[in-house]
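Example record for the data management plan.
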Amino acid sequence: MDFGQPRHRCPTCALPLPGTLAQCRACRQAPPAWDHALAAVDYAYPWDRLIAGFKFRENPAWARHFAELMRATPWVEPALEEADWVIPMPLSNARLKSRGFNQSGLLTQHLSPGKTRTDLLLRIHDTPAQSTLPKHERLRNVAQAFAVEPLQHRVLAGKKLVLVDDVMTSGASMTAAATALRTAGAVHITALVLARTPEH
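Corresponding structural encoding:
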C-alpha cells in the first residue's frame, strides 16, 4: 500500500474531504488566518511513528526524505515558486536546546534553501507542548507565543510567504504564527505541513 498518495483536502485547512466538497464547513464559516493550506499526508500510521522518530529520536537526516514527499504533493511546487520567503515555525530556545534541531527548519532548508528565512518569526514564549492539551486550550496556549523580529517588519510588507511546520492538528500554532506575520504586512500565506491530523 502506498501511504503517500495525495488526498482531496480542504484548500484552507488541509483536512481530508469527500470528493464532492470544495471546502470544509468550518473554513466557510470562519476562514483561517492564512490563505491556503497544503499537507502531504495524514498524521496517522505509519507517518505518525515516522515523524515521532524524526523529532524525538534524533533522526534529523530524515528531513530530506520528508521534504521530497512534501514537494511531490500537488500545488506545493507552485506555492514555493511564488513565495518571496519560506519560513519555518520556530521553536523556543529551551526546546531547541533540548532537541538539538528545529524539525520545521530542517524541512524548510530542504524545500527551498534559497528562500528560507529563520530570522523573521520568533518564538517569544515557551509554552506547554500542544500535544499535551485538549483542543479548546491550544489556541489560548500559543496566542502570544510568536512575534515578528522588530527590525524585520519592513521585510515582510507586501510579501507572499510559505509557513512550514511538521504537523498541524488544531491549527492553533499556525494561527498564532500567521497572525503575527499578517500583522507585519504579509499579503499571502500558505500553510504547508508534512502531516495533517484528521478529525475523528
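Summary line stored alongside the record: Residues 95 and 126 are 8 Å apart (CA to CA).
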